[in-house]
Design brief:
globular; nine-stranded mixed sheet; two-stranded antiparallel sheet
Length: 236
């Protein structure tokens, strides 16, 4: 395996599948099946899940809500998604811990870095919920922060497309895919792979990001094995 400890970033929208809202059981099953395979290969896996399938903080603010209140609602949405993913994994016998940045001890452990590291060493899947616990920060930034805190080898950003393009490939048939980008290119060209705070945090700590298609069967393991899939964002 090219990577031993990875952080997988899943969007909330991906969990919604074709439903467009909420959690699609078929998507949960597919993701959990692939994670089981990673656990069998002794990969130390942490996951950050977005909440966009339930509530997006920015969208709520644009609609007139107080930004902080809207962001806290988004954080709680990520807890719902994390618990759904935990249930799907544990039904398959995968030991899983949800660690929340907002204290809700009845359903999740509080986030403590050293405890998270210990769970990973014991090959438990750790799901980081509730973002950073602070408004104005996205789950992309959460992924970058937690990945650096746990000394992850790479961030794997699973999306609906097979990499980063110069424009939306779902709309433009002439969209060109990038095989490799550096952080400065992503920031200067305003490429929407992750928000600028997350990209800068990865750049400052030389942490690579690999963007790939979540819905292509076996892709997560292929990326971890070092196959040339998707687009890599790196300082090299």
């Amino acid at each position: 395996m090219k990577f031993k400890r990875v952080l997988l970033k899943l969007s909330g929208e991906a969990l919604a599948g074709d439903q467009g809202y909420g959690v699609d059981p078929k998507v949960l099953k597919k993701i959990s099946d692939e994670i089981v395979e990673l656990v069998e290969h002794q990969i130390e896996l942490a996951i950050v899940v977005g909440g966009g399938n339930i509530h997006r903080g920015v969208a709520g603010a644009l609609a007139g809500m107080d930004r902080s209140s809207s962001d806290y609602m988004g954080m709680i949405a990520t807890v719902l998604n994390s618990l759904a993913l935990q249930d799907a994994l544990e039904q398959k016998g995968v030991h899983t811990r949800v660690m929340s940045a907002i204290d809700m001890r009845e359903v999740a452990e509080p986030y403590i870095r050293r405890r998270a590291m210990r769970h990973l060493e014991k090959k438990r899947v750790v799901i980081f919920a509730a973002g950073t616990g602070n408004p104005y920060f996205t789950t992309d930034t959460t992924a970058a922060l937690r990945a650096n805190e746990i000394n992850a080898d790479v961030i794997l950003k699973a999306t609906k497309v097979d990499g980063i393009y110069d424009k939306d490939p779902m709309i433009h048939t002439d969209a060109v895919k990038f095989e490799k980008l550096n952080y400065i290119e992503v920031l200067n060209k305003s490429i929407k792979v992750m928000d600028s705070t997350a990209v800068t945090l990865c750049m400052d700590n030389s942490l690579d990001i690999i963007v790939f298609n979540l819905f292509e069967s076996g892709n997560i393991l292929k990326v971890i094995q070092g196959e040339n899939i998707g687009t890599i964002v790196t300082s090299k």
